[in-house]
Amino acid sequence: MLSLGLWLLTLIGLVVLAAFLGAFFTIETAHAGIVQRLGKFLRIAPPGLNLKVPFIDSVVRRLSLQVQQLDVKVETKTKDNVFVQIPIAVQYKVDPDKVYDAFYKLSDPIKQIESFVYNVILGHVPKMTLDETFEQQGQIAVDVERSLDASMKEFGYSIVKSLITDIVPDDKVKAAMNDINAAAREREATVSRAETEKMLLVKKAEAEAESKRLQGEGIANQRKAIVDGLRDSITKFSEAVHGATAQDAMALVLLTQYFDMMKEVAGTNRSSTIMMPHTPNALSDLFAQFRNAIITGELAAGAHGAAQAEGSRPPPRQV
User: Fold this and answer.
1) Which of 119, 141, 169 finishes a domain?
2) Which has the closest alpha carbon to 278: 270, 266, 296?
3) Which terminus has fewer CB within 10 Å in the chain: N or C?
């Protein structure tokens, strides 16, 4: 009897201790506890130390109120028949005022969010081309966020952000797009090189034209200086030598230039110039040829002037 009573007291003590310990429970910060009594919802337990009736009340779930992220990968086809994979990161959290709805209205919130994401993506992307999908990536993410937030609010969930992290077409499509971009850049580079070469040619032509213009002005000025110098030399020669004519002075100038030329040719050892005879008789003949050419030119000019004067006279009048 004594041992039976001892066992009974020990059992009662253990039950009392378990009841005492079971009356207390804690909820972590940014969490909410779902407390049920005999299988029926009782209350929402806040963070910290809480009490419950032992063996009757139970904490069936501790829901996190922090922002969580769900990664969804949607595969679809664009308007131009390109299959793409679109990874979407959905950031969501439980509304602290709707913990009851978040726990009891949805059996699997993750699957529910995925279904809404698929519904929005499949309603937008097939209406766009691949280029438009890339261009409107941000707008698609905004539409997913708005649609999810409106649909999940009644279930106690709030959508914080929806992000499209990438758009991944098929490998062959990516290779073709890279080839197109490379060809476009090569075409731009070719046009740029052609424009550069054109500019260089234009500048070179302008420089050559300016050089020739300046060269022509220099030659003209040189010839003008030579003519002025010859005129002064002939004038001074005629004044200094009595009876000398302009033809004699011109012949002397030509002979002087001839001797200067001979001196310049003889001064180089790489000249391929054919030399003319320059004996004294040859120089006399050359001087005579210069003088005869000048005289012949003057006679021809005088005959031509007389013919013009004769032709300009009126015919004799007949009586």
Assistant:
1) 169
2) 266
3) C
